[in-house]
Amino acid sequence: xxxxxxxxxxxIGKENRPRLEPRILLEDPSxxxxxxxxxxxxxxxxxxxxxxxxxLALKALEQEFAGKIKCIYIDPPYNTGSAFEHYDDGIxxxxxxxxxxxxxNIICNLLSPQGSLWVNLDDTEAHYCKVLCDEIxxxxxxxxxxxxxxxxxxxMDAEFFSSRHDHLLVYAKDRSQTSWNRVPVTEEGLEHYNxxxxxxRKYYLKPLxxxxxxxxxxxxxxxxxxxxxxxxxxxxxxxxxxxxxGAWRWNATKAEKEKDRIDWIEGxxxxxxxxxxxxxxxxxxxxxxxxxxxxxxxxxxxxxxIKQLFPDLxxxxxxxxxxxxxxxxxxxxxxxxxxxxxxxxxxxxxxxAQKMGRxxxxxxxxxxxxxxxxxxxxKVIDGEDPGGMTESLDWMGGGGFxxxxxxxSLLEKDKWGNWVINxxxxxxxxxxxxxxxxxxxYAPSDAIYWQHGHSTERDFIYVTTAHLTRDQLQQLSxxxxxxxxxxxxxxxxxxxxxxxxxxTVKKIPRAVLSRCEWGxxxxxxxxxxxxxxxxxxxxxxxxxxx
Length: 546
What we know:
The protein is an alpha/beta fold. It has helices at residues 54-65, 89-110, 126-137, 187-190, 252-257, 293-296, 299-309, 322-332, 348-355, 368-381, 427-438, 470-480, and strands at 25-27, 33-34, 47-51, 69-74, 111-121, 142-149, 165-172, 183-184, 195-196, 202-207, 228-229, 235-236, 262-267, 270-278, 284-285, 290-291, 338-341, 359-364, 400-406, 411-413, 419-421, 441-442, 453-454, 459-463, 467-468, 485-490, 492-493, 503-507. The chain folds into three domains: 28-35 and 43-184 and 285-406, Vaccinia Virus protein VP39 (Rossmann fold, 3-Layer(aba) Sandwich), CATH 3.40.50.150; 187-278, no CATH class; 411-520, no CATH class.
């Protein structure tokens, strides 16, 4: 009996997991777009816009981008009831959790060691999702629950509370490797620096005595209890408000070294030391856990931004303001970093990332990818987007993106119900798909016909729809030689599979039939798209022989 226990969230169907097919991505140059000329030397053209189910899109990205994405922001359906109509509460939440869990697992693999995930939700599922994320990312990697003030006015028809906020759950891939950027100080924020030194530098004062918490007492921090010499030569010790011995913020060495930053102020109870915080040394402030609409925008702001772009289009239902994404990307990424949004919505993440010099990937299944996202990105690239963060970022246009569709499933059933290679696949697509499925990097050689990809410098893969004879296999074996190995995937072959020590020969599609859920194109947040339960123990899955 396994006595090892752990904290976890359980729900109906948690044990059922999809066997995802790692699809290839097909670029459609007619829908890809780039600026007519370079605007700056830092223009980015390799951004990716993917049309298709976002779970399959994440799986398609996994091989190339695992460990490379710096910041992932997702705004999934909130599960307010519309997604799972006619299902009772327990099942409804279970379905949502299963579908989100599958995406979070891949997202965790995609994040770089320094990366972070930001999940935008409301009260409906945020707290369940928090526990789920604890399980996937580890509780130690939870960085915070940010409150975004999404509404700038109350709803007077609310029955109980007028909800004015969303949650942003933030997780690090590895907290120990994550470093946060500071939020730039605005002109209003500089008003806090209300003093000027002899060189014209703005600063403000903070008490040198430690204030609050368990570290402000002599008992807790004995090395920070020492005498400082006031301007009149008297000794001053740190005292708490209740008169007991306290502690300084700095040790004696730092206090002596930076004494020019210390200002002494005489009050009724004697002299008190303060230290200077200069504006030019603190060009930003730490991100706080409450983001007001006046700083990052509200739902009203975002709808106005979209309306300004496309006055004649029906506005997207739930866009996010550009200020919100700017704050996320400012804190969690740097120019040139990869940013991912797998619930692209109206395309705000890509639009802001483009303006901020980040590389981006977005995935979207809905047709608004064509009616809203692409037209919006074209305006951004052409420098014709007048709203959002354009002016404050001094955006003049530039760069571009590539448009991809998910390839169809590699296998399909023929009229007799047998699994066969999809007729839409040509030789190039087939080779790339099987490379991805077998864990090889697709890199076809121009010089050697049997090198379609490699897993190491000496291990290669060859994909063909031909029926290979023994003589053909012998020729392949001779060319590969004793210092290399080759995986051969073919329709049929006439020889013993173990006859050649440097070749591994498999038939397709038989070799891959049990790998994936073939022909499953839609894993979106709908009940009918859930994965099937796995077969019961002892039950076998049978496939017809080739």
